[in-house]
Amino acid sequence: MNKSETSEFLTLAAAIDPISVTQITVEAWHDVIGHLSADEVRAALREHRRTSSEVVKPVDILRIAERDEIDELEAQEQLDKAAWLEGTGISVEKFDEDWKTRGFRAAVEAVEAQRGLEGK
């Protein structure tokens, strides 16, 4: 996000919160959240508005954006895992349960054993 977008974001936030949008405020916020995209910041502000009555702070935007990023990575991991397990007859849930109860190596060995059975 560039500084102009940071200023636009702060102007939007100031429509509800008592934020004074000055050059120093834009600089300070940009220093903390400038690495995020404008879309990520706006989405985080919407989430903050829906879940909190507190004045928005940079840390609120960071926490929400980072949580959303983790959620996206976990969803991608589940898709990757599902693709890896495809055709083995082992569900992602079963693999995860095996991993928790028997360990990662045992869970992978079960998948490999299932693949070996299918190859025969």
Kindly summarize this structure in a few lines.
With 120 residues, the chain is mainly alpha-helical. Helices cover 76% and strands 0% of the residues.
Task: Describe the fold and architecture.
This protein has 120 residues and is mostly helical. The protein has a domain at 3-69. The chain contains six helices and no strands. It has helices spanning 3-13, 23-33, 38-51, 58-85, 92-102, 104-119. Helix 1 (3-13) crosses helix 2. The chain starts with a helix and ends with a helix. 15% of the residues are buried. The model has no long low-confidence stretch (mean pLDDT 89).
Attribute tags:
120 residues; 6 helices; elongated
**Quaternary form:** single chain
Largest beta-sheet characterization: none
What is the global morphology? elongated
Distance between the termini: 55 Å
The low-confidence runs, each spanning 5 or more residues with pLDDT under 50, are none
- The structure class reads mainly alpha
Number of helices: 6
Percent in strands: under 5%
Give the overall pLDDT as a whole number: 89
User: Over the alpha carbons, how many angstroms does the gyration radius reach?
Assistant: 22 Å
Sketch the topology as an H/E string, one letter per element.
HHHHHH
| Percent in helix | over 70%
The count of strands amounts to 0
